[in-house]
Structures are given as C-alpha cells and as structure tokens.
C-alpha cells in the first residue's frame, strides 16, 4: 500500500493541507488521508459509514520555540455498537484539545516542577495542566499493587491555616501512604477502615499514634485485635507543655520581686525542653543554675527523664515497676501540674506498655509530614485537597 505524500509520521491518518509560520505561532491545517481506516473512537471497531465532517483546533508540541496549532478536519462515523461517534485517532484522545505528545510532555514536567511553572513553559492554563497531572497521578496510584498492611502509623498535619488538619495513614512496613483525608475526627478517619473491609481490619496487629482519642476509639471499633502504641515524642512533648512550662511560669511569678532571678527563669524555657544530650557546655551551666535554684523545676525535669525510661523497658515486668515508681513519685511531689498530668496519663497505660511488644513510633510519618510541607510550599498551597492528596500518595508509593 502506497503512502500519501502529504502524510507525516506524527499525524497518522492525516495530510498537511496548509502550513503557516508566524512570529510566535505555527498553524497547520490537516485533512484526513484517503488511506486512513475509519474506526469508532469509543470501541475501536471498523466504522460502517461517514456521518459528518467537523473541524477542531488542537494544540501540539511547540516547534522551534513557536506554539503549534492544528486545524484538524475530523469525521464522525456510524458505528454498529456505539451509534454516531468521533473517529479513532492514534495521536489524539477522545474530546481532547491537546495531542497525546503534548499531554505526555506536560505530565513529565509536572513530576519535576509546580504546575504554575509548567503552565508558563507550555503556554497553557494552569487548570489544564492540573487536570493532565491529575490523570497522571491517578494512573500511577491505580497501578500500585494492592496494599495488605499489618502495622499502621497514624498522624495529622496542618492542611490550611486556622486549625484545619488532614489525617494520614502509613503502612509501617513498606512506608507507603495508604490514605489521606480532611479532618482528624473519628468520622474523618472512618472511611479508611471501611475501605479495608472486615478481613483487612482483622489483619491489623498494631497501630502507632499520638494520644489522639479519636484515632484510638476508631481503631478499637474496627480493629478489635490491634494494639495501640503511643509515641514517646508526643507524650514527652505534651509533658513539656502541660507540666514543665506550667511549673516554670509559676516559679517566675513567685520571683516577681526579684527581677534578675525572674529573668533567668523566664529565659530557661527552651533549656528545660531540649534534649540534655544536645546542650552546649555553656547551656548546661545555665540549666544547672536554674534547676538548683528551684526545687519544683528540678523535680519535674528529672521526672521527664524517668517518663522516657518507660519506652526503654525490655519486658512488661520491668515496665510495670517503672510505671508504678513514676506514678508514686508524681503523687508524692505535691506539684499540681505533675499530679494532674499523671492522673490524665493513667488511662493510657495500655498504649504505653504496648511499646515493649511493638517497638513502633510515628517518626516515619513525622519525616513524611516534613516532605508534605515541602510539596505544599513549592506550590504555595493547593486549592484542590483531592489533587494535593494524590500528590502525596504518588510521592510515597512505598518500598517493594
């Protein structure tokens, strides 16, 4: 079969009828080739006849720094199965106004640059670029193998300003982001467990989280055999906010008539909360001076170190002894903030002792949350939360 001399390999089935090169634009007029086989654009079957001819303007890849517009003459064909449909074109998707080549190039750059930059590069509207990237992300996520998690990590991150959060669920074994949803309530995370199904929930053995009551209750409802594991970092951070900071403020208030001493106590906020191993020699001296001058501060500071030892116990019996000693010392300290924290922490003891059997933490997800912030900052935020969540899932597909 001979080829039409006007046909080019990248516009199969069409021939160039006219070509106009302007200063910034190249306009190409394409007519159907007589040698092209008409097929239905929906089912791909051979067409039974021609219904009508239509014209459509299509964007193609830039040529020599110029925007390329194709003025294409298309044919609507009669299909025995689908009725009247547009003809099948190998280099153009159904209803598309961009060629497949241009869409693939845009999708390739979207994996490297924010959509605003890609839109400026190709001279497209950012909504068009976003939809192309959305289809790329959806195809990538859909192609991932089915997840069968046994251990989960749950946490939240700030989605927008104004205390609006999103919840993230991570497979602790593969580091794959399994699910993201707006909110941090029980109703917000319930769709994830419903998507797992009864068998998937029964497979879950342990879930690491902070002391989020909503996460805790929802896990207990759907995964009755899963063990809750509370993260050390969040418990110690909560202790620092509710106990150390409160005692420091009370100590500073008692020294209101001794301004130099009061200034020393007020300026010791971060010294008291930082890890002792990370302090410089000069900072250690300042910290010792503050602790020696105030007995309640010394007590709560030492109790923080003993609290951390609960996550280092090698067996349940050792943990039980450390736990009882800590509660007794907290009760005998007669420091209101410490006593109140101990009373609130007591109901969570099962999630703390689970650390002995399941050495899990939310550190993996904290690192991922930092990468999520980078993704959000590169685009100066996302208006479409679903598109943002697809970006995150594609960025963390998990280890094989």
Give descriptors for this structure:
400 residues; alpha/beta; Nucleotidyltransferase, domain 5; 4 domains; 5-stranded mixed beta sheet; elongated
Could you explain the architecture of this structure?
With 400 residues, the protein is an alpha/beta fold. It folds into 4 domains: 97 residues, no CATH class; 46 residues; 116 residues, Nucleotidyltransferase, domain 5, CATH 3.30.420; 122 residues, no CATH class. Helix 1 packs across helix 3, helix 4 packs parallel to helix 5 and helix 6 runs antiparallel to helix 10. The strands form 2 sheets. Strands 1, 2, 3, 4 and 5 form a 5-stranded mixed sheet that branches. It has 15 helices and 10 strands. The two termini are 48 Å apart.
Question: Short description, anyone?
Answer:
This protein is an alpha/beta fold and 400 residues long.
Largest sheet: 5 strands, mixed
Q: Which range best describes the helical content: under 10%, 10-25%, 25-40%, 40-55%, 55-70% or over 70%?
A: 40-55%
Specify the number of helices.
Answer: 15
Instruction: Estimate the strand proportion.
Output: 15-25%
> Order of SSEs, N→C?
EEEEEHHHEEEHEHEHHHHHHHHHH
Assembly of the depicted chains: single chain
* N-to-C span: 48 Å
Bulk shape? elongated
Mean pLDDT: 88
Number of strands: 10
| Poorly predicted runs of 5 or more residues | none
SSE topology sketch:
Elements: E1 14-21, E2 25-32, E3 49-63, E4 66-79, E5 83-86, H1 100-110, H2 115-122, H3 126-142, E6 151-160, E7 164-171, E8 176-182, H4 186-203, E9 206-209, H5 213-222, E10 227-230, H6 232-254, H7 259-266, H8 269-273, H9 281-293, H10 295-308, H11 316-332, H12 336-345, H13 349-357, H14 363-378, H15 385-395
Parallel strand pairs: 2-4, 6-9, 9-10
Antiparallel strand pairs: 1-2, 3-4, 4-5, 6-7, 7-8
